[in-house]
């Protein structure tokens, strides 16, 4: 048998656009023969899948999974993208998203670590997505993930306008640490998760905010205040007031609770802890909104028709 070298694998990877592990397996199956390996990949539908990889995938699903094993709670959320919202209603795609979220419960790492993790049938998550691309006929991408683990306390998951249980376009996890009745802590977390879905805060606390973002806001507020012609000491107070208002708008703990606007999230957590006879701490939150940050192509149908017909 010919030796399957990294150079051979790289060459097949560049020719086919298929993942490294699939390229290695193709070469092993075909004694290092490049042409036969390409044919093998086409037969398996993998080369077809790779050709779709440059198409924008901004639709799909976000999926959340929660596990309570008695010793604590673990929760994970993932975003699995496809090209059209039609695919989000496909049962195969829904099952894949749900399965990947469950696999992510046991993966302490990023998207690459999840992609390399094994599915119940022994293939990697990455391989299973490639096979799904070949079956469904659209480009797909495991784009983002997050995971929380809490020993004492609870993690709440909320999916806004769920397509199916645990699946939708916006998913939120809220992790809360502290002693007390887990069901009541979970309910608190669910309320906060619904709030996060609605308000999309930038950070948990003021300390978590990007300092560059704060300084940018401060510079804008300072310029605005200076234009008022007020003396420097008044300008300083105006800027600090606007910075506090900025925090109240974008920092979760400082935000007014949407279900009770006279109360901040920080106050809600403190009062719930007091009622339970304990101290509760929001460990963290994550909000994944499907396709956010993905640049979508705007198709110009007339231009496309002109191009096909050879007109300029």
Q: How would you characterize the overall build of this protein?
A:
- The structure is a single chain.
- With 312 residues, this protein is of the alpha+beta class.
- The protein has helices at residues 6-16, 20-29, 34-43, 46-51, 91-104, 111-116, 125-136, 182-199, 211-226, 232-250, 265-276, 301-308; strands at residues 59-68, 73-82, 141-150, 153-160, 167-168, 170-177, 256-257, 260-264, 281-289.
- The chain has a 4-stranded antiparallel sheet with strand order 3-2-1-5, covered by helices on one side. Strands 4-6-9 form a 3-stranded antiparallel sheet, with helices on one face. Strands 7-8 form a two-stranded antiparallel ribbon.
The backbone outline, from C-alpha atoms, is globular
C-alpha end-to-end distance: 54 Å
Q: For this entry, what is the oligomeric state of its chains? A: single chain
- Unreliably modeled segments: 298-302, 304-312
- Provide the residue-averaged pLDDT: 86
Sheet with the most strands: spatial strand order: 3-2-1-5
Write down how many β-strands occur, each being a DSSP E stretch of 2 or more residues: 9
Classify the helix fraction into a percent range.
40-55%
Classify the secondary structure makeup into a structural class: alpha+beta
Strand-and-helix sequence, N→C? HHHHEEHHHEEEEHHHEEHEH
How large is the share of residues in beta strands? 15-25%
Using only C-alpha atoms, the radius of gyration works out to: 25 Å
- Helix run count: 12
**Main β-sheet description:** 4 strands, antiparallel
């Amino acid at each position: 048998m010919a030796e399957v070298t990294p150079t051979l694998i790289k060459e097949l990877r560049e020719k086919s656009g298929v993942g490294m592990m699939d390229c290695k397996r193709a070469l092993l199956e075909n004694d290092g023969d490049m042409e036969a390996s390409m044919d093998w990949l086409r037969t398996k539908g993998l080369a077809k899948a790779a050709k779709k990889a440059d198409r924008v995938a901004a639709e799909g699903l976000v999926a959340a999974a929660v596990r309570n094993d008695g010793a604590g709670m673990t929760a994970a959320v993932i975003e699995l993208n496809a090209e059209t919202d039609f695919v989000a209603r496909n049962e195969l795609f829904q099952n894949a998203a749900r399965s990947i979220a469950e696999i992510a419960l046991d993966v302490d790492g990023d998207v690459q670590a999840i992609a390399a993790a094994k599915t119940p049938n022994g293939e990697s998550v990455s391989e299973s997505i490639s096979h799904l691309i070949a079956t469904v006929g659209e480009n797909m991408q495991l784009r983002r993930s997050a995971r929380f683990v809490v020993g004492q306390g609870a993690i709440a998951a909320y999916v806004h306008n769920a397509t199916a249980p645990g699946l939708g376009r916006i998913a939120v996890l809220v992790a809360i640490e502290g002693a007390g009745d887990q069901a009541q802590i979970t309910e608190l977390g669910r309320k906060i998760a619904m709030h996060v879905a609605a308000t999309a805060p930038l950070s948990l606390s003021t300390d978590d905010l990007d300092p560059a973002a704060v300084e940018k806001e401060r510079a804008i507020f300072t310029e605005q205040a200076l234009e008022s012609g007020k003396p420097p000491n008044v300008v300083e107070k105006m800027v600090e007031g606007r910075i506090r208002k900025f925090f109240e708008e974008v920092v979760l703990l400082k935000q007014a609770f949407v279900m009770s606007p006279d109360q901040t999230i920080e106050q809600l957590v403190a009062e719930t802890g007091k009622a339970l006879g304990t101290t509760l701490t929001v460990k963290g939150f994550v909000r994944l909104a499907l396709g956010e940050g993905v640049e979508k192509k705007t198709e110009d149908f007339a231009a496309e028709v002109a191009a096909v017909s050879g007109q300029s």
